[in-house]
Amino acid sequence: THFPADWKVSPDRATRDRRQEEWMALQAIYASGQARSIGISHYCPQHIDDVLEVSHIVTPSLNQVEYHVGSGDVDGVMEKCKQHNITFMSFSPLCG
């Protein structure tokens, strides 16, 4: 699931409950055999913790995050992914 927020237009979408509700729905799809894996995108360590609290069927397979020379600090995200065996996948390595 992509980080569900645009901050200014619909900040109500960026809540712990929303992340957990979406993850539980994705787990149901996974459990039904309609998906081989499910992942997240742009999740920080706290967002990952929110999802892990309700990951009773499967944990995220990967976290795709914008990561390049000009990116902010993502070391905490990388460490959290490593701790929970979540593949860290960067995109836009050339800032494009």
Describe this structure in words.
- With 96 residues, this protein is an alpha/beta fold.
- The protein has three helices and three strands; from the N terminus they run αβαβαβ.
- It has helices at 16-31, 45-52, 75-83, and strands at 40-41, 62-66, 87-91.
- A three-stranded parallel sheet has the order 1-2-3, with helices on one face.
- The longest helix is centred in the first third of the chain and has 16 residues, at 16-31.
- The chain is globular and about 40 Å long.
- The two termini are 22 Å apart.
Keywords:
96 residues; alpha/beta; 3-stranded parallel beta sheet; 34% helix
Summarize the structure.
The chain is of the alpha/beta class and 96 residues long. The protein has helices spanning 16-31, 45-52, 75-83; strands spanning 40-41, 62-66, 87-91.
